[in-house]
Request: fold
Amino acid sequence: GTGYRLATTSGSLLPDTSQAFSITAGTATTLVFSVQPTATVVGGTITPAVVVTALDAGGNTATGFVGNVTMSFGTNAGPGTLSGTLTIAAVLGNATFADLSINTAGTGYTLKAASGAMNVTSLPFNITP
Reply:
């Protein structure tokens, strides 16, 4: 954010306020699934949309991150085929995968999101007949 100010007071000193300053997120250091994939039926779109977020070293959303995030299987429990848009450019640090589906039933699928040296694996989920 912008326009932050610090104000000080003390019993015997005059109050004072700093000049305005900005706080911005750092560069991306890790990816997380901010919305995990959920169980769905064979061929159905995974809902809600899977969202991968880039975080800075302090755990803040790296809003300046606009890199491509690529989705693949971590564990292919079917084995199935992962369909949909598999590479998404992040917007304000978030990559939203709104059309992912899997064509084979299985227990314990996981997804892996990657961007450069950063990657993360989702929690397990199932695809039912």
